[in-house]
Design goal:
The chain is an alpha+beta fold. 27% of the residues lie in helices and 25% in strands. The protein has 4 helices and 15 strands. The strands form 4 sheets. The protein has a 5-stranded antiparallel sheet with strand order 8-7-9-14-15, with helices on both faces. Strands 1, 2, 4 and 5 form a 4-stranded antiparallel sheet that branches. Strands 3-12-11 form a 3-stranded antiparallel sheet, with no helix packed on it. Helix 1 packs antiparallel against helix 2 and helix 3 runs antiparallel to helix 4. Bound molecules: 2-amino-4-trifluoromethylsulfanyl-butyric acid and cobalt (II) ion. The site of cobalt (II) ion has 5 residues, from loops.
Length: 250
Protein backbone atom coordinates (compact mmCIF):
# COMPACT_ATOMS: atom_id res chain seq x y z
CA UNK A 1 0.00 0.00 0.00
CA UNK A 2 1.18 3.48 -0.84
CA UNK A 3 2.00 5.77 2.06
CA UNK A 4 -0.67 8.48 2.37
CA UNK A 5 0.36 12.09 1.82
CA UNK A 6 -1.92 14.29 3.90
CA UNK A 7 -3.50 17.37 2.38
CA UNK A 8 -3.24 20.78 4.05
CA UNK A 9 -6.73 20.27 5.50
CA UNK A 10 -5.86 16.82 6.83
CA UNK A 11 -2.69 18.18 8.41
CA UNK A 12 -4.73 20.78 10.31
CA UNK A 13 -6.99 18.02 11.64
CA UNK A 14 -4.00 15.82 12.56
CA UNK A 15 -2.43 18.76 14.41
CA UNK A 16 -5.59 19.34 16.41
CA UNK A 17 -6.05 15.64 17.17
CA UNK A 18 -2.48 15.49 18.46
CA UNK A 19 -2.73 18.73 20.42
CA UNK A 20 -5.77 17.41 22.27
CA UNK A 21 -4.01 14.12 23.00
CA UNK A 22 -0.95 15.93 24.37
CA UNK A 23 -3.28 17.85 26.67
CA UNK A 24 -4.74 14.55 27.91
CA UNK A 25 -1.23 13.28 28.64
CA UNK A 26 -0.27 16.40 30.51
CA UNK A 27 -3.19 15.78 32.85
CA UNK A 28 -2.51 12.06 33.11
CA UNK A 29 1.10 12.73 34.10
CA UNK A 30 -0.11 14.87 37.01
CA UNK A 31 -2.21 11.97 38.27
CA UNK A 32 0.71 9.52 38.50
CA UNK A 33 1.49 8.83 42.17
CA UNK A 34 1.96 5.88 44.49
CA UNK A 35 -1.41 4.31 45.34
CA UNK A 36 -3.32 5.11 42.16
CA UNK A 37 -4.66 2.03 40.37
CA UNK A 38 -4.00 1.38 36.72
CA UNK A 39 -7.78 1.32 36.20
CA UNK A 40 -8.13 4.80 37.74
CA UNK A 41 -5.57 6.05 35.21
CA UNK A 42 -7.59 4.49 32.40
CA UNK A 43 -10.86 5.99 33.62
CA UNK A 44 -9.30 9.44 33.95
CA UNK A 45 -7.77 9.22 30.47
CA UNK A 46 -11.02 8.03 28.94
CA UNK A 47 -12.88 10.94 30.55
CA UNK A 48 -10.30 13.51 29.41
CA UNK A 49 -10.49 12.25 25.82
CA UNK A 50 -14.30 12.34 25.80
CA UNK A 51 -14.37 15.80 27.45
CA UNK A 52 -12.56 17.02 24.33
CA UNK A 53 -15.41 15.57 22.25
CA UNK A 54 -13.09 12.86 20.92
CA UNK A 55 -13.16 9.07 20.81
CA UNK A 56 -10.46 6.87 22.38
CA UNK A 57 -9.14 4.90 19.42
CA UNK A 58 -7.65 2.06 21.47
CA UNK A 59 -11.00 1.12 23.03
CA UNK A 60 -12.18 -2.10 21.34
CA UNK A 61 -9.31 -1.93 18.83
CA UNK A 62 -8.93 -5.61 17.90
CA UNK A 63 -10.83 -6.27 21.13
CA UNK A 64 -8.56 -4.26 23.46
CA UNK A 65 -10.77 -3.68 26.55
CA UNK A 66 -9.65 -0.18 27.68
CA UNK A 67 -8.86 3.32 26.42
CA UNK A 68 -5.38 3.73 27.90
CA UNK A 69 -2.63 1.08 27.85
CA UNK A 70 -0.98 1.07 31.29
CA UNK A 71 2.20 -1.02 31.45
CA UNK A 72 4.19 -1.26 34.69
CA UNK A 73 7.89 -2.18 35.11
CA UNK A 74 8.55 -5.36 33.08
CA UNK A 75 5.35 -4.81 31.08
CA UNK A 76 6.46 -3.39 27.74
CA UNK A 77 3.19 -2.27 26.15
CA UNK A 78 -0.56 -3.03 26.00
CA UNK A 79 -0.93 -3.55 29.75
CA UNK A 80 -4.61 -3.87 30.62
CA UNK A 81 -5.75 -1.53 33.42
CA UNK A 82 -6.94 -3.30 36.58
CA UNK A 83 -8.83 -2.07 39.64
CA UNK A 84 -6.54 -4.02 41.98
CA UNK A 85 -3.20 -3.04 40.44
CA UNK A 86 -1.83 -0.09 42.41
CA UNK A 87 1.30 1.85 41.47
CA UNK A 88 3.96 1.97 44.16
CA UNK A 89 6.94 4.20 44.84
CA UNK A 90 9.86 3.31 42.56
CA UNK A 91 7.75 1.75 39.78
CA UNK A 92 7.92 2.95 36.22
CA UNK A 93 4.68 3.15 34.27
CA UNK A 94 4.23 3.45 30.52
CA UNK A 95 1.05 5.12 29.30
CA UNK A 96 0.05 4.72 25.67
CA UNK A 97 -3.09 6.32 24.27
CA UNK A 98 -4.68 7.82 21.23
CA UNK A 99 -7.85 9.55 20.12
CA UNK A 100 -9.90 10.34 17.06
CA UNK A 101 -10.74 13.99 16.28
CA UNK A 102 -13.00 14.56 13.25
CA UNK A 103 -11.88 11.26 11.77
CA UNK A 104 -8.15 11.77 12.39
CA UNK A 105 -6.10 9.64 14.75
CA UNK A 106 -3.34 10.61 17.15
CA UNK A 107 -1.14 8.26 19.19
CA UNK A 108 1.54 8.80 21.82
CA UNK A 109 3.27 7.11 24.74
CA UNK A 110 5.45 8.11 27.69
CA UNK A 111 7.08 6.27 30.58
CA UNK A 112 6.86 8.02 33.96
CA UNK A 113 8.54 7.30 37.26
CA UNK A 114 6.30 6.79 40.30
CA UNK A 115 7.73 8.90 43.14
CA UNK A 116 11.47 8.38 43.54
CA UNK A 117 12.91 5.87 41.06
CA UNK A 118 16.35 4.26 40.79
CA UNK A 119 19.15 5.82 38.76
CA UNK A 120 19.03 2.75 36.49
CA UNK A 121 15.33 3.22 35.79
CA UNK A 122 15.81 6.91 35.12
CA UNK A 123 18.61 6.22 32.68
CA UNK A 124 16.39 3.73 30.82
CA UNK A 125 13.57 6.27 30.52
CA UNK A 126 15.92 9.06 29.43
CA UNK A 127 17.72 6.91 26.85
CA UNK A 128 14.42 5.70 25.40
CA UNK A 129 13.23 9.29 25.03
CA UNK A 130 16.53 10.42 23.53
CA UNK A 131 16.50 7.55 21.02
CA UNK A 132 13.28 9.03 19.63
CA UNK A 133 15.02 12.39 19.21
CA UNK A 134 17.99 10.73 17.50
CA UNK A 135 15.57 8.98 15.14
CA UNK A 136 13.59 12.09 14.29
CA UNK A 137 16.75 13.90 13.19
CA UNK A 138 16.55 11.64 10.12
CA UNK A 139 12.82 12.22 9.55
CA UNK A 140 13.22 14.57 6.62
CA UNK A 141 11.76 14.63 3.11
CA UNK A 142 14.17 12.89 0.73
CA UNK A 143 15.69 10.66 3.40
CA UNK A 144 14.75 6.99 3.60
CA UNK A 145 12.56 5.67 6.39
CA UNK A 146 15.08 3.22 7.78
CA UNK A 147 17.57 5.99 8.49
CA UNK A 148 15.25 6.64 11.45
CA UNK A 149 15.45 2.99 12.55
CA UNK A 150 19.22 2.89 12.18
CA UNK A 151 19.69 6.08 14.21
CA UNK A 152 17.59 4.74 17.09
CA UNK A 153 19.55 1.48 17.09
CA UNK A 154 22.93 3.24 16.95
CA UNK A 155 22.03 5.44 19.92
CA UNK A 156 20.73 2.58 22.09
CA UNK A 157 23.46 0.04 21.32
CA UNK A 158 26.18 1.47 23.67
CA UNK A 159 23.77 1.22 26.64
CA UNK A 160 23.51 -2.55 26.13
CA UNK A 161 19.72 -2.33 26.26
CA UNK A 162 17.41 -4.61 24.26
CA UNK A 163 15.38 -3.00 21.48
CA UNK A 164 11.97 -4.65 21.08
CA UNK A 165 11.60 -6.02 17.54
CA UNK A 166 8.12 -7.55 17.54
CA UNK A 167 6.39 -4.17 17.79
CA UNK A 168 7.16 -1.15 15.61
CA UNK A 169 6.02 2.38 14.81
CA UNK A 170 3.61 3.09 11.98
CA UNK A 171 1.93 5.55 9.69
CA UNK A 172 -1.20 7.21 11.09
CA UNK A 173 -4.11 9.27 9.77
CA UNK A 174 -7.66 8.18 9.08
CA UNK A 175 -6.59 4.88 10.66
CA UNK A 176 -4.54 4.26 13.80
CA UNK A 177 -2.15 2.01 11.93
CA UNK A 178 -1.28 2.90 8.34
CA UNK A 179 1.72 2.08 6.18
CA UNK A 180 4.65 2.22 6.62
CA UNK A 181 5.94 0.17 9.56
CA UNK A 182 8.67 2.05 11.44
CA UNK A 183 11.11 -0.38 13.09
CA UNK A 184 13.31 0.75 15.98
CA UNK A 185 16.28 -1.48 15.11
CA UNK A 186 18.86 -1.40 12.32
CA UNK A 187 17.58 -2.43 8.88
CA UNK A 188 19.34 -3.92 5.87
CA UNK A 189 17.12 -2.24 3.27
CA UNK A 190 16.79 1.54 3.24
CA UNK A 191 12.98 1.58 3.21
CA UNK A 192 10.63 3.97 1.38
CA UNK A 193 11.56 7.56 0.68
CA UNK A 194 10.08 10.09 3.11
CA UNK A 195 7.93 12.86 1.65
CA UNK A 196 6.36 16.01 3.06
CA UNK A 197 2.82 15.34 4.28
CA UNK A 198 3.49 11.87 5.70
CA UNK A 199 2.40 11.43 9.31
CA UNK A 200 4.07 8.65 11.26
CA UNK A 201 4.47 7.41 14.82
CA UNK A 202 8.01 6.75 16.02
CA UNK A 203 7.86 4.68 19.18
CA UNK A 204 10.97 2.97 20.55
CA UNK A 205 10.32 0.29 23.19
CA UNK A 206 13.55 -0.38 25.07
CA UNK A 207 14.30 -3.11 27.64
CA UNK A 208 16.94 -2.80 30.34
CA UNK A 209 17.90 -6.42 29.64
CA UNK A 210 17.41 -8.61 26.61
CA UNK A 211 15.18 -7.66 23.68
CA UNK A 212 12.93 -10.72 23.82
CA UNK A 213 9.30 -10.28 24.81
CA UNK A 214 6.36 -12.58 25.42
CA UNK A 215 2.57 -12.22 25.61
CA UNK A 216 0.65 -12.90 28.82
CA UNK A 217 -2.42 -15.16 28.84
CA UNK A 218 -4.67 -12.08 28.65
CA UNK A 219 -3.54 -12.03 24.96
CA UNK A 220 -2.53 -8.35 25.24
CA UNK A 221 0.08 -7.56 27.86
CA UNK A 222 3.57 -7.73 26.37
CA UNK A 223 6.28 -8.39 28.99
CA UNK A 224 10.04 -8.81 28.82
CA UNK A 225 11.07 -12.45 28.80
CA UNK A 226 13.88 -11.86 31.30
CA UNK A 227 11.76 -9.75 33.68
CA UNK A 228 13.83 -6.61 33.07
CA UNK A 229 12.05 -3.26 33.04
CA UNK A 230 11.02 -1.57 29.83
CA UNK A 231 10.33 2.00 28.66
CA UNK A 232 8.35 3.43 25.76
CA UNK A 233 8.34 6.86 24.11
CA UNK A 234 6.12 7.74 21.19
CA UNK A 235 5.05 10.81 19.26
CA UNK A 236 3.00 11.36 16.14
CA UNK A 237 5.11 13.43 13.75
CA UNK A 238 4.68 15.21 10.41
CA UNK A 239 7.31 15.09 7.67
CA UNK A 240 7.72 18.52 6.05
CA UNK A 241 10.04 20.06 3.46
CA UNK A 242 12.08 21.33 6.42
CA UNK A 243 12.30 20.25 10.05
CA UNK A 244 9.82 17.56 11.10
CA UNK A 245 6.95 18.65 13.34
CA UNK A 246 6.33 16.73 16.53
CA UNK A 247 2.55 16.94 16.80
CA UNK A 248 2.10 15.39 20.27
CA UNK A 249 4.66 17.35 22.30
CA UNK A 250 3.62 19.12 25.48
N1 LIG B 1 -0.33 2.12 21.01
C1 LIG B 1 -0.22 1.10 20.08
C2 LIG B 1 0.57 1.69 18.97
O1 LIG B 1 1.27 2.59 19.24
C3 LIG B 1 -1.56 0.59 19.69
C4 LIG B 1 -2.27 0.02 20.83
S1 LIG B 1 -3.68 -0.69 20.31
C5 LIG B 1 -4.44 -1.24 21.67
O2 LIG B 1 0.56 1.33 17.86
F1 LIG B 1 -5.40 -1.92 21.26
F2 LIG B 1 -3.62 -1.93 22.43
F3 LIG B 1 -4.83 -0.27 22.37
CO1 LIG C 1 1.67 3.75 17.97
Amino acid sequence: MAIAIKTEREILLMRESCRLLADVFQNLEKAIRPGISTMEINILGDQLIRQHGCIPNFFHYNGYPASICVSVNDEVVHGIPRKNHFLKEGDIVSLDAGLIYQGYHSDMARTFGVGQISAEAKQLIDATRQSFFEGIKKARAGNHLHEISNAIDAYIKPFGYGIVRELVGHGIGTKLHEDPQVPNFAQIKRGPKLRAGMTICIEPMINMGRADVEWLDDDWTVVTEDGSWSAHYENTILITEGDPEILTLY
